[in-house]
Design goal:
Helix content is 54%, strand content 5%. It has 204 residues and is mainly alpha-helical. It has a two-stranded antiparallel sheet with strand order 1-2. α6 packs antiparallel against α7. The radius of gyration is 22 Å and the shape is elongated. The termini are far apart.
């Protein structure tokens, strides 16, 4: 696999580095295969880019010389383009991965908590139902994380993805504990009246 483009130094968005990271493991993969792997790994601790984002970043990475692709031959019923990382891409990715300054703080956007924050506008039963639904979804996600861990553990080159998934397992367990405590807190409010008016709470 070769690329006719010379690599250029350029600041890339996290999505591009994530896609290049998927390519850094042995083997060549189609965009569809990259999406499947992102859905069974990245989404548990970061996020999974849409298939359109993956193909857009693959084009960008090829233009930079960080990735190269080949089209399948006539032996396959449908032509597929498979992508792999180039030496320049691996060098750039290693530099980015080792730059601690680029990691940044974790960002939490918890949709359920935003609704709990507005609980004075919600029916108590509906609020409790939303928290219970979150518990069920998180339990299902935990099962998916453990399935992904079991699969990754069978691949000799995926030792570090297993560590990331193990962290995700702990994070989901913590989310379950926090959500159960939240549900208990809501129950503890009892029949307190919820009103939409009044002054907003402020520190101090």
């Amino acid at each position: 696999m070769t690329s006719s483009q010379k690599p250029k130094k350029q600041e890339l968005p996290p999505t591009a580095w994530a896609v290049l990271g998927l390519l850094s493991f042995p083997g060549e993969r189609t965009g569809y295969e990259l999406k499947k792997w992102a859905d069974s790994s990245l989404r548990f601790f970061y996020w999974s880019p849409a298939i359109s984002q993956i193909y857009a970043e693959l084009r960008r990475l090829e233009e930079l010389g960080y990735a190269a692709s080949v089209r399948s031959g006539p032996e396959e019923s449908r032509a597929k383009r498979r992508y792999g990382i180039t030496p320049a891409g691996r060098e750039a990715l290693a530099g980015w991965a080792s730059d601690v300054a680029d990691a940044g703080p974790p960002v939490l956007k918890h949709g359920l908590l935003l609704r709990v924050w507005l609980g004075h506008l919600a029916e108590p039963d509906r609020l409790r139902a939303m928290v219970t639904e979150h518990l069920e979804r998180t339990t299902e996600e935990l099962d998916s994380v453990r399935e992904a861990m079991a699969h990754a553990a069978t691949e000799p080159d995926w030792a570090f993805p297993v560590l990331a998934l193990r962290w995700s397992e702990r994070q989901h367990l913590a989310e379950l504990e926090l959500t159960r405590a939240l549900l208990a807190d809501i129950e503890g409010l009892g029949g307190q009246e919820r009103q939409a008016g009044g002054d907003a709470p402020t520190p101090g």
